[in-house]
Amino acid sequence: MVDSERAVIDETTAGLLEAAGPQMYRRNAFRITGLPTDADRRAVRQRQQRITPALELGADVDLGHSLPVRLDDVRGAFDRILGDPRRRLVDELFWLWDGVADASTNGASARAAATCPCPCPKTLHHDHDAAVRAHSAALDLEVENDAVSAGPHLDEAVRLWSNAARLWGQVLRRAAFWDHVRHRIDVLDDRQLDESVIDTFRDAMPGTLVKPLIELAAAAQAPADRLRLAKLARDWPLVPAGMVDDQLEEAAAPHYESLRATAKRASSQLDGGDWDGAAAEVYDHALPALALLESLVPHARHRRTASARNDVAVLLNNCATAATDGLGPAANLNASKWFRTAAELATDPVTQQTVRTNRDGLRDMMTTFNQIRSQVDQLVAAGRIGLARTLLLNVKRQLAGGPGSDEIDRMLAGLQGARPGTSGPRPRRGRVLAWAVLALVVLGFLAAKIAGAFDDDGGGSDSYRQQGGTAVISAENVEDNDRPGRCIGSKSDWRPGERAVDVVPCDEAHWGEVVAYELLADTASRYLTGKYPGAQQATALARFRCELALARLGSEGKGLKVTYTVPPESAWDPKGPLLDEYTTCVAHWPDDRYMTGDDQVRLDVPVSTEPALMGTFGQRIEENAPVGSCVQTKKDLSLESVGIPIVPCEEQHWAEIVAYPVLYPDGTGEWPGNDAVYVRAKAACEEETKGNRTMVLNVTYPAQDWWTWNAKNSPIYTMCALSYMGDSTFTGGLR
Question: Which of 194, 205, 41 is nearest to 132 (CA)?
Fold first, then answer.
């Protein structure tokens, strides 16, 4: 390529870059001046000489539009048309070709067009102008309105963007379009224009057209707008999705930089020993920044976002580790929250495994301390206060002043004044997640030490057996429970809601096995919060989480059934999802026959990504997949209602279940007809999903046979689920 050709291309590209953006049509020189795009230089100068002095004098000049323009805008528009022909040609392509000149212009442009008519088919001009009008109107609507996705203009925006993409795609694919560009180069007859300009336009115009969507998505305040606009950009015709992803990531650069600065501040605080301040920085600033990035450049598509998420996960993991290393059990409440968030954010397998190890370590540590307390209480109750003190001092020596020593000191202090036959006062419990690695090793070793202490009491090595005796499985705080894997001897021993249960060695005949403790409100869904969801949904949540846990044990759970606890309303924290809301999951044979040692469920297998197969339209609402859970793959929910693959919404999914509104509370009456029931069901779902107009509403309503079967037994309800247009999958709850 010779230098002259490169200069032509560079200036043309500069003109396209200058035009690209949400204001591309509002800044168009022909729109601002009111000139037709085929106006010759004489007509342009005459209009310039007519209206510029009037504007300088402050006169009210009709420019043929209502755009708010200043005198400098008008001057710049004339300079652009009369200046470099390559920039003029850019403005021509992005404005109307059959536009009627303003009444204040003379007929020079019309005469010019008549003497040099465009050879294009008339339909080309019509289609091009239709594309310009749709695209211009769509951009005007977005620029003039905030939160379009949640407002009254959404339907109009969807229509305009659909038309703009379709029409521009059709126009740019037509050979006649490029013949028109070639014709305009000939008419302008300038040595700065040559055939190389056409290739530049052909390569760059699709990207120029999609650039406004990218900038709008990056600037949008509402997550729904960011999602909608970014998806429109990725679907824009003739533009590779990978290129759009690159541009979205480039547009998100300020958000990445803001997140990096936040992480740097938090790391500095953590290095200074202020882990609370560092974690607060993450929750107050880093997590909102990540949420913004997730709606614009989701981590499933963008490695940079995935890396940013993982960096924040590492930071929270380190905050929790530092807190527990410094405070021991006193750090429990905050550290557990930080580790849980870290687990949700981690994208790197090494980080994921590290966080899992730390969370498992917490359970080991809390189990050990529960065992210590239990043994101390039993010794005190038996009048063996001296032996209880000896046991605690032995533990304290093992800890050697490390994390947990303060907890042991409080237990020792509690022995002062304790009387035989009574339990010593229980120290105030912190809710913690992980200790430093050394403390975990020491505490893991303590079980044997405790058993040895009881040898001195004549109890023998079987006085404490991890496999038998009692196990805590429904403590107020989930981390206070014994580890999963304990076996319940008979069904009569299973008393949901009681803190402890009698257990037997798992190699003996037993009824069921505790396989998991599952959090219920650990989700980003706005339809499932930390508030008590009511008895029906609490039951549905517990069932879902336990069935999912069993399904993800793979072959270990095949053929087994899961029974679960349902936490009462008093267990739910109204301020948000904490560790209070969990369910205990017990696996057993469906016919309740005894399990043997060969049936024991191995819990150390790799966890799979299997969904829970659940219904969405059972006889009772609590039998269904819960509100705030998600349908993994596309289903016709109006026809299918059993065996639906249900996953947590933080995983990839097609739709989210958002409500089960009751249509006929009494559950009685004659069948009102299919149309009447559907209208009522759709209205109920639309009421439940206000503010989600970017989504497709999936409504499952009762048919006549279902009505006949259920009308006498229970209220008649409908199911509402939301999916994205185009049936694209996504992660995270609806916003």
Answer: 205
